[in-house]
Amino acid sequence: MKRSITPVVVTTLVLVFFYLPVAVLVLNSFNASRFGGEWGGFTLDWYRRLWRAREIWQALGNTLLIATVSTAISTVLGTTAAFALDRYRSRLQDVHYLLVYAPLVVPEILMGMSLLLFFVALRLQLGYLTIVVSHVTFCVSYVTMVVLGRLQDFDWGLVEAAQDLGAGAWTTARRVVLPLLAPGIASGALLAFTLSVDDFVITFFVAGPGTTTLPLRIYSMIKHGSPPLINALSTLLLALTVATVWLSQRLIKEKT
To answer: Fewest CB atoms within 10 Å of the CB: 40, 151, 180, 207?
Structure first.
């Protein structure tokens, strides 16, 4: 009896540990009390103030723009890098693998400082370009690893069969390779987009005037004491995330 109850209790405690702070955050977004230490009544005032906070929406727009561009570049570079690492074996490829793997293990603060010094040495003005280049620097490694994992089980005999039937290189890539690798490429792209949107440390070093992203704006709001607006913003982002996951699951079920 004890053996059957223990896993349930442990699982319940773990779920409570993970989701209780999220529930408190959502609850405080409707709390009239400014600091959330006590319940001051139900209110939607924080959402109304959030709607009028132009600087937050501008930061969100910057974040989405940078994440979209960084993801597009990282997906192309990461996919081609994965192909090169999977198809060719040489000492040069060992160096290539080391360069791809390094951003995964190097501390973010070290990467941020190094990139800042690099941009200063090149006399580049800090702004959108420096942020995009910095995000691509670490996002491309994650895309490469995800696509490379997909290539481990890839049947290259299908490519040879398509070529034997007269398909050219472009037709083979478009009709055979890309459809089979699409789940891995999409997973790498989503991971890169998430990492770009969520990045704070590296962006903190390489951002310039007028290029404040949402994580930087939230950090500034925390320093100046605006927790209710942060709670409201986090609740909206959480609702958007849940809706996106639910919609994707529905689409997957309909296709299957």
So the answer is: 40
